[in-house]
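Justification of resources, computational component.

The compute hours requested in this renewal are based largely on the per-chain cost of generating structure records like the one below. Each record pairs the submitted sequence with a full structure-token output. That output is archived, and it is also reused by downstream analysis tasks.
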Amino acid sequence: MQNFGWYAVPYSFKVYLKVDIDVAVKRALEDNARKNTESYSTIEEAKEKILYRHKEETKRWIEEYGVNRDDMSNYDLVVDTTKITPQEVGNQVIQAYKKWLEN
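The structure output for this chain reads:
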């Protein structure tokens, strides 16, 4: 299940981490920890399953909670992680969070 703290805790700093689907697929295929829970025969199959799961989860959120988790206006910060390191992601989050606290 996706984290929905941004919805459950309205007065919080909300971050959305996004990534290009092709990079997401590559990361999923290279993640040894996922091999026990997710199995893909091909890159195309992985992409199809990831996109399908995202679509279905988004639909479920709209039906169950009445919110669209893909609406970027729900978040205080949106970070595209496609071409940056985890350290850079963390730095962006910390900087934006500090600014958010000032307001």
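The beta strands are 15-18, 77-80. The chain has one domain: 5-102.
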